Amino acid sequence: MPNMSREGNPYDNARMASFYTTLKTEEADLQDDRDFDDVQRHSTAFIGQLHNEERLHSSLGSVPPAEFATQYHGA
């Protein structure tokens, strides 16, 4: 996995590694994808809907990222 960190901030990479693990265990391992288009479609749906809109994130006070952004950033 490539290093996704900003210079001098090793924790950025840890967050990406955690996300990739979630994507793999909660989406990719459960799908029977036939080709790259299937992978892309399922991954996009997982990230856009389940991960951002429904899945609770303990690091965000047990709310989905979209709700957190609305509550705390006025998005």
Largest pleated sheet: none
- Classify the beta-strand content into a percent band: under 5%
Straight-line N-to-C gap = 31 Å
| Average pLDDT for all residues | 82
Unreliably modeled segments: none
Give a written overview of the molecule:
This protein is 59% helix and 0% strand. By secondary structure, the chain is mostly helical. It has one domain.
Question: In summary, what is this structure?
Answer:
The protein has helices spanning 11-26, 36-54, 65-73.
Layout of helices and strands:
Elements: H1 11-26, H2 36-54, H3 65-73
List key phrases describing it.
single chain, about 80 residues, mainly alpha
